[in-house]
Amino acid sequence: MTLFLFPCAVIFSNIGRGGKQGHRRPKRPPVRSLDHFVFTVPALDEAARFYADFGLDMRRVDGRLDLQTFGHAHRWGSIHRAPGRKKLQYLSLYAFDFVAIMLLRRFRTEELV
Fold first, then answer.
1. CA-CA distance, 38 to 80, in Å (whole number)?
2. CA atoms within 13 A on the CB side of 80
3. What tens digit of pLDDT does each residue of 34-82 get?
4. Higher pLDDT, 113 or 36
5. Mapping DSSP to helix (H, G, I), strand (E, B) and coil, where does residue 44 land?
6. Where in the chain are the domains?
7. Under CATH, which number does the domain 2-8+32-109 receive?
8. Residue 93: exposed, middle, or buried by beta-carbon count in 10 A (0-12, 13-18, 19+)?
9. Are the beta carbons of 60 and 51 closer than 8 angstroms?
């Protein structure tokens, strides 16, 4: 399994994979799961209040907020302070290796990497 970081500007579209006639394959590459997300906000304290009210276990680490669920060590998201509007920076996704190969080919074809 491979871990990918996807900038938000990357949009998946139809990736031809061939295959047997009558066998439907997904038009988009399958992703196993979300590892974590990262975004920026102008005010960390305000974000901390919001996510605490939402019921998440928030931890301040090295000037950022890490979002976890109570009783679990996995970090689902990180929030950093940055000027301007709230902005999703990237998604970290797990995908199976065959998907990794397809995505890298697609990104190179479209000069995304």
1. 8
2. 11
3. 788 999 999 999 999 999 998 999 999 999 999 999 999 999 999 999 9
4. 36
5. helix
6. 2-8+32-109
7. 2.60.40
8. buried
9. no
